[in-house]
Amino acid sequence: MEESIRVRRYEQLPTAKDFESLIELQNVPAVFVRCTKDWRAFSKWNPSNAGLDYLQARVGSSAVEAMMSGSAPVFYGDLGSHERVPLPFSTFIDFCKQRMQSKHQESLGPSCLSPQTHDLSSSGIDGAYLSSECVPEQIYLAQVPIMNSDCEERVQLETLRKDIQIPSFLEEKELSSINLWMNNAQARSSTHYDPHHNILCIVCGRKQVVLWPPSSSPSLYPMPIYGEASNHSSVALENPDYSIYPRAEHSIDFAQKVILEAGDALFIPEGWFHQVDSDDLTIAINFWWRSNIMSSMLEHMDAYYLRRILRRLIDKEMHNFPRTLEAFVLHALSPVGAEVLTRKFDEMDQQSLEEDRIRFYEVFYSAFDDQSAAMNSILKGKESFTQQAFKSVLDKFVGVNLESSKLGVRRDA
After folding, report:
1. pTM for the predicted model, two decimal places
2. Are 112 and 135 in contact (CB under 8 A)?
3. Same domain, yes or no, for 261 and 277?
4. Residue 307 lies in a domain
C-alpha cells in the first residue's frame, strides 16, 4: 500500500481550511478521534443510559423504512438481495430492547418477534412471517434520512437533528443528506463505494471498516455499470469463489482496516470501496456531500472527460501485455522471418546504447520487402490489441463485458 493513500488519524479536529486542503483534496480516508463526544446524542442515545427509552419517546411511532434481508448478518446492497419495508421506529426500538434482554438470558433461544407482542397492521408487514424468521436480526435501519436536500418528503427522522452537530470542518459544505444507521444485532454491509464524500460518525457501539482505493476495483469486480447496483462489488468477500473471481485473491493487498469506537468519525472519500462490520446495537450518523470535482464537472464536458479517462486506463492496461509489437509482427511473418525477428529482439534486450538501438531498427525494417505494408500490418495489429485493452478496461474497471452485454457499440465512437 502506497504511503500517500494510507488512512490518516487525527486526535484533534482540523479546521475547515485544513480539512479541505490537506484531507479532502487528497481523497484519502481519515479518522477523527472523539468527533461526536460533544453531541447531545452521545449521552442521550446511549442504550446503557436509558437511551432507547429516550429515542422511543422522542420519535414515537413515526414510520421508517427498514432494510430486511434473509442473508443477515450480511446485508447486500443490490435490490435482489433485500427489500425495504415500512416499520414503526418504536417497534425497532423494541427489537433492540428485546435483543439486550436476551443477551442477559443465555437460556433463551433466538430473539424472535411474537405476532401478539406488537401490532404491525399499520406497517404493512406480515406478522406471522416476522415470527418465523427471527426478524430482529434480519432488519437493519440503513440510511434513514434525517435531512435530504434533494427530497425533503423522504425525511423520516428530522426530530433527531437537534441531538447531533455538523462537524465544524464541514460547516461550509453544502450537505446533500444526513442519515441514521442503526442495527440491533451484528451486521455487515456488502463491499461498495459511494458517489459522494462521506463522514461516518459513531454515536454508540463500534464499527470495523475495511477500505480499498478506487484503483483496486479490478480485484473487487464491480457490478456492471448499467446495473442498478453498479457501485457494489460482485464478490462476497466473506466466502469468495476464486475460480470465478481470481483477482479477488489479491484484494487484501490493497485493503486497509480501521476500528471506530463510540465518538470516532471516518472520512470515506468518494469512490473508495468499503465494507462495514457493526457490533450489536450500534448507532451511527453519516453526512454526505458532493466533491468539488463532481460539483464543477459541466455536463457538456462529459464526453471529453470520458474519452480521456478511458484513454488513460487503456494506456495503463496495455502495459500489462509486454512485447506487444513483437507479438503482432510474429503473426505477420513467415517462420523463417519470425525466427530472425525473435533473435533480433533478444539482442535488443541486451543493448542499452541508443546507437545500438538505432542500428537494430535499421536491420529490423530491412527484413521487409515492402516497409509501408509492414508498417500498416503493425498499425492494424496495434489497433486490434488496443481494442482488446479497451474491452479489458471496461470489464475490470467499469464492470461492462462487451461480449455478453446487449449494449451496442458504434465503430466510430
Report:
1. 0.78
2. yes
3. yes
4. yes
